[in-house]
Amino acid sequence: MPIQYFEETRLFCLTTATTAYLFQISPNEQPLHLYWGAKLPRIEDYPLAPPDRQHSSFNATLHQNMSEYLCRNSIAEYEPALRVTFADGTRDIRLKYLSHRIEGESLSVKLADIYYTLELTLEYRVIPECDMLARRVTVYNAGQAPFTLEQVLSASLPLALDRGEYRLTHLAGAWACETLLERCAITPGRKVLEGRLNYSGHAANPFFALDLVDSAGQGAGENIGEVYFGALQWSGNWKIVIEQERAAGKRTRVAGGINDFEFSWQLGASESFETPWLVLGYSDAGFGKMSRNLHRYVSEQLLPPQFAHELRPVLYNSWEAVFFEVNEAAQISLAEKAAKLGAEVFVVDDGWFGERHSDHAALGDWQPNPVKFPNGLKPLIAKVNELGMDFGLWVEPEMVNPDSDLYRAHPEWAYHYPNREPITGRNQLMLNLCREDVQLWMLGWLDALLSEHNIRYVKWDYNRAISEMGWVEGAQSEIPVRHVHALYRIVAQLRAKHPQVLFEACSGGGGRADMGMLAHFDHVWTSDNTDPLDRLLIQQGYSLVYPPKTMYCWVTSTDWNRGNYPIRYRFHSSFMGALGIGTDLNSMSEQDLAEAAALVAQYKQLRPIIQQGNFYRLTPLGEEEVLAYQYQREGEGVILAFGQRYHFWKFLNRLRLYGLETEALYQLEGDLMEGEPHLLSGKALMRRGLVPKLERALNSALITLHKI
Ligand code: DGJ
């Protein structure tokens, strides 16, 4: 039973395969958080609420700070998850437990204000097989007088007391360096991770991990130690707040959800507001187990079902080869070469529509350019199909260039303030997706495009952060939520009508890598930075949270670091996820094309293991000199190892493998160091390990594992 309620103690106990999460309704009808961590043998083993106390008149009481969902009342020592202003100006929320409902793996607990008409439902979804649970809330106005929501987070909770110190691991970056690993100690004060530019963002990713640091200063490792983690299923403004108070015995609280930045929401009579889910997990076996649980959750619970269990195709994308200079003849010439390489989808990127010759014009004019494609896209699509590939197309539906027919006809469709010149970014403005006419227009042209053409792949881009959230006739403070809801709705409608189409989420690379997008899109374009060395760190961060199969990795000839990388190294770096090719195929020699074709063929053979296997980091997180990964699917494994900055004095540590059968024998093939055995038992591989052949900088090794 994943959810149990004990009437006598008014205790809720939520359990997954190895974890438990408990809270209790106190005698004064408050839900108090009690425990989150390893599952214990007996219900009596878990702590109950201690008597309430108060450190001083400068502090809230212990019970207030133990709240299962902290609302704005009393002394706001910690981030309140819920802040409202009632019609009479009152900002104080006093809730009491009303009722609860358990339905299989879902629990809802209803609370109501003692005077005003606000009702709050705490919702829980237990995901036993992923060892995780998800939380969100719904606020309901049961009366006539409207009130204003000023902050409504998905969840807030205290972490266990007296359990040592916490270290925060999170992902941060910028354009072309997304999802880089960051770590810091949690000390008294607040740490806020957030996105407030109308997308989840390049700068920070809506994810956190807090591992326990022991008295010797040792935190969790790849396979040992305790880690609490969470990720928000939301693609708009978000925040995750981690804060610690010294007075309360260094109690640490975490809260996360939609950012309150320039946000408020009028809740009228009988209206409700539902937050996105915050998924939460606890690992008692380090960051490796955390990542595998998150990957399983995305793969099995979150991804749109059509392609959730399908292999991602090898794609060719012409962006880095030709940028805006797309036309029928040049694309056909690239398509012929891409087909020979083994590409399965041919994607035409930016530049195919309107007067789009640079990034200065035409966003909004979604008709093929009549000079570049005199007979429309159909002849190119037919050729691509004839070559045995599916056809894909780039779009950026949420944007408009001032220099476009659309903007000339509908300047009011872009977010703007009445007495201000609109601020462009990449020469474009953002369409006001909160408007119904904009939504209908967008759905209309996309639906027509997909209905009239044999398109099997859509790359949905989003190339600027918002500047002004201006909406003259509408509720401006609701934009951050309404925009994202409209985006999700439109994509869901398109998917329902065109179930054969794969959707890629892109925002100038990986600016929209989040669980909200992965509930609607099949995968993510990880970064515009396609340098194979830089990519290793970006991909290390991405794969910490999201499964490798959702991470597209292109092989290109662009060397952001002028690295002069061997072709093999470029491919091995891109083997880490779903493989794409973005090289200018016209500039490759016959010899290089043949090597590339052989590598594509090898990837296709290994793809079920890479895309559907379990993922193990063989080198510690944060390590930069040598990075190694194992993908294991039953008896078949792939090891990828990269020497990045390999010092003269450095000896390569043996890499210990994971997830093997101890007694079984495994045949090893590929880049093993001279003298390494090619046949070893699972136990030997997991204990003694192996040494890949990595002799100099920018060298990579690929080893396969086959159970015999
Ligand atoms: C940003 C994307 O990340 C690139 O891959 C490419 O599609 C360009 N936009 C096109 O403008």
Would you give an account of this structure?
The strands form 6 sheets. Strands 6, 7, 8, 9, 11, 12, 14, 15, 19 and 20 form a 10-stranded antiparallel beta sheet that branches. This protein has an 8-stranded parallel barrel with strand order 21-22-23-26-27-28-29-30, surrounded by 5 helices. 20% of the residues lie in helices and 30% in strands. The two termini are 39 Å apart. It is built from 13 helices and 36 strands. The protein is of the alpha+beta class and 708 residues long. The chain folds into 3 domains: 3-302, Distorted Sandwich (Beta-galactosidase, Chain A, domain 5), CATH 2.70.98.60; 317-608, Aldolase class I (TIM Barrel, Alpha-Beta Barrel), CATH 3.20.20.70; 617-707, Immunoglobulin-like, CATH 2.60.40.
Low-confidence regions = none
**How many β-strand runs?**
36
Bound ligands: (2R,3S,4R,5S)-2-(hydroxymethyl)piperidine-3,4,5-triol
The level-1 CATH class of the largest domain: Mainly Beta
What is the domain total for the residues?
Answer: 3
Instruction: Count the DSSP helices.
Output: 13
CATH topology call of the largest domain: Beta-galactosidase, Chain A, domain 5
Percentage of residues in DSSP E strands:
25-35%
Percentage of residues in helical conformation: 10-25%
Mean residue pLDDT:
95
Distance between the termini: 39 Å
Radius of gyration from the CA trace?
Answer: 27 Å
Task: Give a short account of the largest sheet.
Answer: 10 strands, antiparallel
What's the name of the CATH homologous superfamily of the largest domain? alpha-galactosidase from lactobacil brevis
Shape: globular
The assigned structural class equals: alpha+beta
Second-tier CATH architecture of the largest domain? Distorted Sandwich
Organism: Candidatus Chlorohelix allophototropha
EC number: 3.2.1.22
Catalytic activity: Hydrolysis of terminal, non-reducing alpha-D-galactose residues in alpha-D-galactosides, including galactose oligosaccharides, galactomannans and galactolipids
Keywords: Glycosidase, Hydrolase
